[in-house]
From TrEMBL:
This is LytTR family transcriptional regulator. Coiled coil: none annotated. The chain crosses the membrane at residues 21-39, 51-70, 90-111, 123-146. SMART domains: LytTR. PROSITE patterns: HTH_LYTTR. Residues 200-298 form the HTH LytTR-type domain. GO terms for molecular function: DNA binding; phosphorelay response regulator activity. Pfam families: LytTR. The lineage of its organism: Bacteria, Pseudomonadati, Bacteroidota, Cytophagia, Cytophagales. It comes from Spirosoma profusum. Keywords: Membrane, Transmembrane, Transmembrane helix. InterPro entries: LytR-like (IPR046947), LytTR_DNA-bd_dom (IPR007492).
Length: 298
């Protein structure tokens, strides 16, 4: 069980996906309370009762959206794909559930007009919410992990892998820097200042990784990886490359498909293995279809 909690879990979600999930969770809470009316809501005699009950769903949506966006932005490093696990997902969702229960208790206090809110010391509703929620949360996270793991593991095993021979990088290094256009075998990458340039043999390029305002261009030189820095955005480098076999696979990576030696999959998605597994490049889900199509077209 402890080994399962340490397994990687998907963490990269857009704002739109987060908002949609928060809305669905809030809608479920509102409908559940309206239909079943637990916690003696069926005995609650008040005007606009339906709207007030729907308010619990609204509070749930707002708390869920805030927690997901705020904490993932504030602690971005902790929510990265490299660190996010099944256990962390369960803890995060459980913490969100706890905050929802607390927020809804305060919402109820506001509706009842309780000035001292002394009844909040009665944590029965909070405890019930926690106990009712923790088991389905754990089950759904584990089920989603198994589903995603099976999906990407099977798909990765079916992807075709092709290799292209290298050309002499030393000859590429001797090209004059004032050549303005790349050739079919050589990439010419120009920095933001339009002066610094880097010539790289197409088939020796492994990948390009972005880091703030710089890109690390990783390529083979004398059969060893070289890592020169280029002051440029990844989008700018991607436009300069403009090849169907060198593609964006992540917000931080552009990879040479001809240098992929193996593709594996886990619950977070595909992993591209290069240079005898020395480099493992993640694939963001938004690039899955493009990557698969390009690999099959090689």
């Amino acid at each position: 069980m402890f080994k399962l909690l340490g397994q990687p879990y998907p963490a990269d979600e857009s704002i739109s996906v987060t908002l949609r999930k928060a809305f669905v969770i809030g809608l479920f809470v509102a409908l559940f309370l309206l239909v079943f009316q637990p916690f003696e809501l069926d005995r609650w005699g008040t005007s606009y009762k339906t709207l007030k009950i729907i308010g619990f769903g609204v509070v749930t949506t707002l708390i869920t959206f805030f927690n997901t966006v705020f904490w993932k932005q504030l602690l971005r490093g902790q929510f990265s794909g490299e660190k996010w696990t099944v256990g962390r997902e369960i803890v995060f969702i459980t913490a969100n559930l706890v905050l929802i229960a607390i927020a809804n208790q305060y919402y109820l206090a506001a509706l009842l007009g309780s000035a001292d809110m002394g009844y909040l010391h009665n944590w029965s509703m909070f405890l019930i919410t926690f106990l009712v929620g923790i088991f389905p949360i754990t089950g759904l996270v584990v089920l989603n992990y198994i589903t995603q793991l099976k999906k990407y593991s099977q798909s990765a095993a079916e992807l075709p892998i092709h290799h292209s021979p290298s050309i002499d990088q030393e000859k590429v290094d001797t090209l004059p820097n004032d050549v303005s256009q790349p050739t079919d075998d050589v990439l010419r990458l120009v920095a933001d200042n339009e002066k610094d340039t880097l010539n790289v043999a197409v088939n020796d390029l492994l990948f390009v990784e972005s880091s703030d305002n710089y890109c690390t261009v990783v390529y083979l030189k004398n059969d060893r990886p070289a890592r020169p820095l280029l002051r440029s955005s990844l989008s700018r480098v991607e436009k300069q490359i403009d090849r169907s076999d060198i593609v964006r696979c992540h917000r931080s990576y552009v990879v040479n498909l001809n240098r992929i030696e193996r593709v594996t999959g886990n619950a977070q998605g595909y992993k591209l293995h290069l240079l005898n597994g020395q480099f493992q490049i993640p694939v963001a889900r938004q690039y899955n279809e493009t990557l698969v199509a390009r690999l099959k077209a090689l």
